[in-house]
Amino acid sequence: MKKSGGAAAAEKKRVRRSPGALQSISRDSNSDGPPKKQAPKKDVFQLFAEKVRDHKGLESRWAVLQETRVEYFRGKDFVSFLKNNAEVKEILGSDKNLEIEDIGNDLLRKNLIVRCDRVVKTVRPGKKKLSTWPAHLEIFPEQVFSDNDAFFAWAFVKRHPLWQTLLSFFWPVLTLAICLFPVYPHQVKLLILYSCAGILLLILSLLFVRAAMFGVLYIILGKRVWFFPNILAEEATLRELFRFCPKKDEEERPKWTTRLFYAIVAVLVILLLRHHAPDEAARARYQKRVSNIIDDVLEWSPKLALSGMMEKQPTVVNATESNCSSADCANAGSDVGGANAETPAEKHVEEVGDVEETVQFPQHGDDI
To answer: What transmembrane ranges does the database entry give (predicted)?
Structure first.
């Protein structure tokens, strides 16, 4: 009986010390504590919308929607994009086999996109059809996906890329560098000056060549062709800003009388500018004036400015030296007057001498 009791006690100790029991105890202790918070899983449609928006295959534009700039796309472009890029739908997981219309409706239901409509719904005078990409939009009453002249604006904030974040920190540094331009070395000033002048000359030359080509093609062929069509656009992305290909001319061809009128005006303007062109002397004066301005800008420095300010300041006399007592000033005056004073006899002799010099008496034998 004692042996059986001892064996039972040993078995109990083994059970207590067994690793399985320890694991179960640790699990129980962990279960007693507060449950760990799991990171919220991002919606697959949110990831899908971000992927589609960042993709270069979907063409989009910027417009004004209720006084807010939004990025929008066309419904037919969205349909063609998903047909040509079926791998993008892999992000949806189990919903990747949905129809394109169902995917668009899900995006609308989750407020990731908003259906919009053009504000101007009539054809403007001189045009054949409505604008392909309107600049002003309004919310469409029925929020249902469609690819028939439907526009959809992204309703979530786009994540900024790294280069935009770095650029936001770079602007204050650039502003500070511009303010410190006067203290730069002379060679650095020359480099900055010629770089800015070159960029400005490039921009003006580009605008001039662009306008000249437009005028020549308009007068000769009657075509409205603008190279770099978005170079002066206020609402355009960086990629659209430097796009070289011109837009398709959707307006009516101008009449020959209009083209002839503009041709005559262009010839008259050229002749007028040629007639009033400055001569060599005027050009030399302008060049000298500009060179003097550039030299003043390059040679200016805070040291020269401070030295000029010091030279313009009036000299300050010490107050202790100027404010003397009345008795001392009177004594000093009397001393000076006493040293240089003349007697009355000396004054009389000097007066008589002056009279003799001014008055000449006639001599004997002269005619009176």
So the answer is: 166-185, 191-221, 260-277
CA atoms within 13 A on the CB side of 237: 12
Quick: pLDDT tens for 24-66. Answer: 434 444 444 444 444 455 688 888 998 899 888 898 999 999 8
CB atoms inside a 10 Å sphere around CB 153: 20
Residue 1 has pLDDT above 70, yes or no: no
User: Tokens 């309004």, residue?
Assistant: 138
- What crossing angle do the helices spanning 256-275 and 186-220 adopt, rounded to 10°? 140
Q: Which two tokens stand for residue 100?
A: 């394109």
| Distance separating alpha carbons of residues 63 and 120, to the nearest angstrom | 13
Residue 72 near residue 60 (C-beta atoms within 8 A): yes
Q: How far is Cα 35 from Cα 55, in angstroms, rounded to an integer?
A: 40
User: Would you call 186 helix, strand, or coil by DSSP?
Assistant: helix
Decide: 170 and 96 in contact? Cβ < 8 Å. Answer: no
> How far is CA 239 from its chain centroid?
16
Would you report the helix, strand and coil content of the chain in percent, each value rounded to 5?
Answer: 60, 5, 35
Q: Has residue 138 got a pLDDT over 90? A: yes
Which of 24-28, 73-77, 323-327 comes out lowest in average pLDDT? 24-28
What is the C-alpha separation between 57 and 88, in angstroms, rounded?
A: 11
Show the tokens assigned to 193. 């000056």
Residue 218, number of CB atoms within 10 A of its CB? 17
* Bridging pattern class, strands 151-154 and 69-74: antiparallel
Rounded Cα gap, residues 155 and 177, in angstroms: 38
